Amino acid sequence: MSQLRIEHISKWFGKQQVLYDISFAFQPGQVNMIIGPSGCGKTVLLKTIVGLVMPEKGKVFFGDVEFLSAPPQKKRSILQKLGMLFQSSALFDSMTVEENVAFPLRVFTRQSESEIQDRVAYCLDRVGLAGTQKKFPSQLSGGMKRRVGLARAIALNPQYLFCDEPNSGLDPLTARRIDELIKELTEEFHTTTVVVTHDLKSVIDMGQQILFLYEGRAEWQGDKQTMLREVDKLPPNLQAFLRASGLV
Fold this sequence. Notes:
By secondary structure, the protein is an alpha/beta fold. It has nine helices and ten strands. The strands form two sheets. The protein has a six-stranded mixed sheet with strand order 6-7-8-3-9-10, sandwiched between helices. A four-stranded antiparallel sheet has the order 2-1-4-5, with helices on one face. A hairpin with a 2-residue loop joins strand 4 (about 55-60) and strand 5 (about 65). The radius of gyration is 18 Å and the shape is globular.
């Protein structure tokens, strides 16, 4: 799989700089986590990686292709390899579950209707929602909506899976189930998974490679085991973040 990496990303909104010269290589087949307190720039960085926000400086590489400056046809080919779970699930309220999950298949592929239905059924079954095809988002709980969002995110069998605060607003048991699903799907599809979160329980449950942001700066990066084993050697802001969670 082509490696995803970012180089020297900086972003301003007006006169306010929100990201400062961030570089990181995301590991294939692993859950890569962007962590940090609220307002530190995590979601802005994620949106930059997938092209929803353009940085003033920096580059995003999917393999040897620089995504942000790529021509439209090349960008489209990369977008077909991406799955995205938004914080709000971002389902279309006027569409059924089936239509929501089928949406990227209809946009990016030329599959027949029967092939699309088979893929939708598989994805819903994979996230534990078999038989919900005809329901509307308004009939679903928050956790079910998040799982529909995951089903849609994996519909194209993506090489890269992006999740923005996947546990936001969920009860602890449902949050852990979403964590388990993301970890399982990462292993099953061997995706490069990028999860934005400030939920340290999620970091413990499924994190592997960690990028810690604080006030728009990358203050630490490394693997979870090193982070938890060497807390006293970490930057003070990361130590405080971990200890505030009560998990270390």
